Amino acid sequence: MSENQRIGTCGRRWCTVSATVEDSEALRWWMLSFGVSLRVLAPKPLFDELRERTRAMAALYARSPGKVKVRVSSDTQ
After folding, report:
1. pTM above 0.85, yes or no
2. What single DSSP character describes residue 16?
3. Counting beta carbons within 10 angstroms of the beta carbon of residue 73, is it exposed (0 to 12), middle (13 to 18) or buried (19 or more)?
């Protein structure tokens, strides 16, 4: 992930990892690709942004559409 990546405390299910990385949309896509297997702890602005994105995602799936349909948005926010 980065040259200064550190793996800190590891429990039964989670490990704490820290690294200096470029703040980018690609980073967000990468983090979100882990689904429920990754939780951002810091920095707080990134935590808050990902929390809001995942809330919006959850709202999309709150109701069953009945039929299988896919809608792709060009809006990344």
Report:
1. no
2. E
3. exposed
